[in-house]
Specification:
It comes from Antrihabitans cavernicola. This protein has 13 helices and seven strands. By secondary structure, it is α+β, with helices and mostly antiparallel strands. It has three domains: 176 residues, no CATH class; 58 residues, no CATH class; 61 residues, no CATH class. The strands form two sheets. The protein has a five-stranded antiparallel beta sheet with strand order 5-4-3-7-6. Strand 6 and strand 7 form a beta hairpin. Helix 7 crosses helix 8. It is extended and about 70 Å long. 18% of the residues are buried.
Length: 322
Amino acid sequence: MIEKVDAAGVAALVGWLSGIDRDVDDSVRIDMLRALEDVKAACCAAQAKQAADFEASRIARRAAAGVPKYRSNRGIASEIALARRDSPSRGSQHLGFAQAMVHMPHTLSLLERGLLNEWRATILVRETACLDREDRTGIDAELCADPTTLDGLGDRALTAKVREHAARRDAEAMVKRASKAVGDRRVTTRPAPDTMAYVNALLPVDQAVAIQAILGRDADSLRAIGDERTRSQIMADLLVERVTGTSTVVGPPITVNLVISDECLFGDGTDSAHVDGYGPIPAGIARHWVKQRLDSDTKTELRKTSHEAKCQAASSEGGGNA
């Protein structure tokens, strides 16, 4: 019989894991990787149950204290985020996952047993979010009551299977969800390693597929006539050229604001510079950028701030790479 475990017991498990023997055979290492993956899934399930119980307890206590219903769940997601050392927005996602698990007992069981990982469980939750409780519970039973149902399915195949079952149960809900999603289309950027950045576009699937197909087709055409760039490099360059209307060699006509200290710009300082909309970059790369623009025909302005003693290099009419 398994004894009940409290927070101290879980903390002891964390300490035990740090002492895992590494002087073992490769077969043992593979077995350990499998077992640790099961532990991760079980931890995810345990967190979901604790989060759901925490929300139910908080709401019940507030109801007993006379707190209005519309305020009964205020701050709960933030508390969960704080406990998990995560952002408030992620806390809302964690809580939403926990709320779904309450009505998806078979998915939760697979997660507890290590037969389903957190991401695949998230796919099941995400793709059934538009359904009512009865339909979501029904899909949970259809796909997860038998652990072998999902065997051999990759993430994409799993997503497609869940969507197929969801459409069969409530096609109208799926249509409404798709219609609403179109309103969420957007373009965002986020930093990537090595002073690169990701540009993400959330688009209707027909538009996204068309963009990918056109860039791929034209990249193949250029490679066929001897272009030595890789297919991915050509596609990226074509995207920039078609969005900005200029060649990637010339550079787009934009302004890039670079904030850098005078010691780093004119000396050998090592403090990071800052690019608006991106974040910190190494001082050496910032100096290289500024030198490139000063040596070219690019209009470059250097402005010194009076209160922070920093120089801001604003590169306009070409050459922005951030």
